[in-house]
Design a protein that fits this description.
Blueprint (H helix, E strand, L loop, with lengths): L10 E4 L12 E8 L2 E6 L3 E6 H7 L11 E4 L3 E10 L9 E3 L3 E4 L2 H9 L6 E10 L3 H6 L4 E4 L3 H5 L6 H8 L15
Parallel strand pairs: 5-9
Antiparallel strand pairs: 1-2, 1-10, 2-3, 3-9, 4-5, 6-8, 6-9, 7-8
């Protein structure tokens, strides 16, 4: 697969009927994808009953002026691990720049910075991630299930989580109501 074919900085949208209920209407922000594998953070579903303030309390961090934003279901892998997808105006010790579109941090310093007002201007917090081993995502992309779209940051920062899936399809020129859950034989 050529470098141009990798999906870092783009979004993966779940197709209807992909067969894995954990990814129903999933919107995955692809944070790394290369010959060794891929990692993405789910931003299409929130974890019911868990807000940002409750997460901060678990780390004994005063929420300060930070809004009590929802915490997202980042993916089924390592649900005890947290990630912050954020704007490029802040960087911590483990922050990675994702194709110049957004950044990804996975340490507590990002949470502290958000709470004390010195963190990124825009951010989304998620627990867990979606991960693929070497060649695994490439194989999945050869079958129906995932639809890659441009990494438009408006989808991250200005679109309500409940609307991200439909909005991303519409931005790609596809009416999601017309998508079918299976395929036929010719």
């Amino acid at each position: 697969m050529t470098q141009a074919a990798y999906l870092t900085g783009q979004f993966l949208l779940a197709m209807p009927g992909m067969g894995d209920r954990r990814f129903d209407r999933a919107v995955i922000a692809m944070c790394a994808h290369d010959a060794k594998g891929a990692i993405g953070i789910g931003l299409g579903a929130v974890i019911g009953g868990l807000g940002f303030h409750a997460l901060l309390e678990q780390f004994e961090i005063d929420p300060g002026e930070a809004p009590d934003a929802p915490v997202h279901f980042g993916g089924p892998v390592d649900m005890r691990r947290g990630f912050v997808v954020h704007s490029l105006d802040w960087s911590g010790q483990d922050t990675i720049d994702v194709a110049g579109r957004w950044a990804l941090s996975g340490t507590i310093d990002a949470l502290r910075a958000i709470a004390d007002g010195s963190g990124p201007r825009r951010w989304v917090v998620a627990l867990g991630y979606a991960g693929w081993a070497e060649g695994q995502l490439d194989g999945e992309l050869a079958r129906p299930g995932w639809f890659p779209v441009k990494g438009d940051t408006d989808l991250l920062w200005t679109t309500d989580p409940a609307d991200r899936w439909q909005s991303a399809y519409r931005a790609a020129g596809i009416d999601p109501r017309l998508l079918v859950t299976g395929s036929g034989n010719a």
